[in-house]
């Protein structure tokens, strides 16, 4: 009965994986004929990333819950194929915000799981409080979020990719405009246009209806929604440990250490 249940669970994950893999391959073929080789490479990367849950299970000998594994694969597809290739980041307002919120939630779940596995492992003499575990999960999630923003900034500076999406603002305040050269911020309000003068003396009106913020607001918004996702799961994880693992919702996102993976157990007991 246990093996049958495990097999049914893995069939659900396998069905989602096969569907997403088919969609990625179809997109890759289409982009190849469009001669968009950068998108072809991105599709190949996505195919590799879709294998991550299985690789993690095998390498760490953990059993990823069905819900967590499926959400991770859908997240990868939504970020790489829909977001980058299909331009959902610019077509659908809030797409990037939704993904960063989910990322904060998932990373908190992973961080919580890492501590929870140590807490339950008999080889380690650890008895960590629910509060401590929730704080660790939160800090882990925020650290991953910060490292990702470092990566985006690096790609923007080195390859001019604009991963940190720009925003149009109508008010700026900066000490760079202080006529005395001091530290007094000078505000400019009601900005409707910005004119750029190139090295050759050419004046180009951006025509954006305001001043172009170069990714700062996007970065802070991403970290804020990552914070929200991390806080939400940290509270869920706290009560999960407080009630000795009885939380049905939290258990869908927390991997468990196993001696034999469910599918291996099923193979060994036909």
Please give a structural write-up.
With 270 residues, the protein is mainly alpha-helical. It folds into 2 domains: 2-165 and 215-268, no CATH class; 167-213, no CATH class. The chain has 10 helices and 8 strands. The chain has helices spanning 2-33, 37-49, 52-60, 66-85, 88-91, 95-120, 130-159, 216-242, 248-251, 262-268, and strands at residues 62-63, 167-169, 172-174, 186-188, 195-197, 203-205, 211-213, 256-257. Strands 1-8 form a two-stranded antiparallel ribbon. Strands 2-7 form a two-stranded antiparallel ribbon. Strands 3-4 form a two-stranded antiparallel ribbon. Strand 5 (195-197) and strand 6 form a beta hairpin. Helix 6 runs parallel beside helix 8. The longest helix has 32 residues, at 2-33. It is flat and about 70 Å long. The model is unreliable at 1-7 (pLDDT under 50).
Concise summary:
This protein is mainly α. It has ten helices and eight strands. It has two domains: 218 residues, no CATH class; 47 residues, no CATH class.
Strand order of the largest sheet: 1-8
Poorly predicted runs? 1-7
Q: In percent, how much strand structure appears in the residues? A: 5-15%
Question: What is the helix content?
Answer: 55-70%
Main attributes of the structure:
270 residues; two-stranded antiparallel sheet; 8 strands
Topology readout:
Elements: H1 2-33, H2 37-49, H3 52-60, E1 62-63, H4 66-85, H5 88-91, H6 95-120, H7 130-159, E2 167-169, E3 172-174, E4 186-188, E5 195-197, E6 203-205, E7 211-213, H8 216-242, H9 248-251, E8 256-257, H10 262-268
Antiparallel strand pairs: 1-8, 2-7, 3-4, 5-6
Helix pairs in contact: 1-2, 1-4, 1-10, 2-4, 4-6, 6-7, 6-8, 7-8
